[in-house]
């Protein structure tokens, strides 16, 4: 089937590893044409909701993925009613652009999947779950083995010690996880921001920012690194 005949799809993009891996899977399978990244932003802070990823890093991810960004600003604080109103508007705009489906990087939480399905019901957009049901230990190891690089940007200290915030999502991180913590953080133990992987055309240079505790969570800021190319030295006569 030619690319032009594939149904066009938006990917719900959290800036983290699961949505990034969903993009990788979607492109490998080629059942859909991924037309853009749909991201909810906390309008008060101009950061990705929950992950707290800076907009500049989010936009760098979209460029590295070669996809347009479809931002959905949310008020802060944001009620379910405000969220659902904003998402209905985003769905209407997507339909107008010829989009036929929305994909999510959810793994096994049935209530979350059901909520997504109910949210899209009647919109004309089909819900798609490309990595649903995969074993999360194997999935985490597959991500790392295939070059995905991410930082832990949010930790729920009730589920995972605060010192995990800011760490690399790598083999050492998986080894150090306490018993009972999901290797992909699917139960909300942690969230990530991706800066390299097979879904990107090039890695994104990043650097660590401050670690803060806010609203019961520990956030580790990740900034775009200030990479400057040194000026060539003048030739000696």
Walk me through what this model shows.
This protein has 237 residues and is an alpha/beta fold. It has a single domain, classed as Rossmann fold (3-Layer(aba) Sandwich), CATH 3.40.50. 29% of the residues lie in helices and 25% in strands. It has 6 helices and 10 strands, in the order βαββαβαβαβαβαβββ. The protein has helices spanning 17-29, 55-65, 80-96, 110-120, 136-145, 171-176, and strands at residues 8-12, 33-42, 47-48, 69-74, 101-103, 126-128, 149-155, 190-196, 206-214, 217-224. Strands 1, 2, 3, 4, 5 and 6 form a 6-stranded mixed beta sheet that branches. The protein has a 4-stranded antiparallel beta sheet with strand order 8-7-10-9, with helices on one face. A hairpin with a 2-residue loop joins strand 9 (206-214) and strand 10. The radius of gyration is 19 Å and the shape is globular. The termini are far apart. 36% of the residues are buried. Residues 229-237 have low confidence and may be disordered.
